[in-house]
Amino acid sequence: MKKKIGFIGIGKLGLDCAEVMAEKHEVRGYDIYPRNSNSVKVCDIEELVKNSEWIFIAVPTPHAEGYDGSVPSSHMEPRDFGHDAVIDAINKVNQHAKTSKKVVLISTVLPGTTRKHFYSLLDKKHQFLYNPYLIAMGSVKWDMANPEMVMIGTETGDPREMRDLIDIYRPLMKNNPRYVTGTWDECEAIKIFYNTFISAKVGLANMIQD
After folding, report:
1. CA-CA distances (angstroms) from residue 106 to 6, 14, 132?
2. pTM (2 decimals)?
3. Of the four listed, 40, 128, 179, 191, which is most buried by Cβ atoms within 10 Å?
């Protein structure tokens, strides 16, 4: 059955993901910059929130300047990702939602971020899920439909809280991925460790090539 889905953030990642979702569901998209799509209805934030059962937050969580891995940073003070865009999206959901929503964050954050910084900001009538994607720029749509795994986290990690989201993904998948369920913190950690492992492999391959 088609679900009513909204994407806050339809940039390089979000728009392609929203268009994959639109193959099976009714999808709206909002971004602070003008966007166009043949399959996603681009609208203002108020229309998106009011007409979506599920709201996916796909906004940037950027590194601080100098922490992008282009230069050594081990001697520098540890810094977190930027959270401003996520917090703004949560505030917009609170402002415009008259009924309960399922809010899904797909942006990469450090372990513990959702529990410490985001959940307390969201009105308690809504459900907050963490669902980071394993996607590479340049192959977003293929990666979206052929994931190695789908990670879904909730406050308690109860798999029963994730069934509806799994039902959204199943008709989209071209392969048969495994679904990894856990708490917000566990899924945040898996995503960060996965990214770190990939970066280590790329660094090793580059060193061998050099």
Report:
1. 13, 9, 4
2. 0.90
3. 40
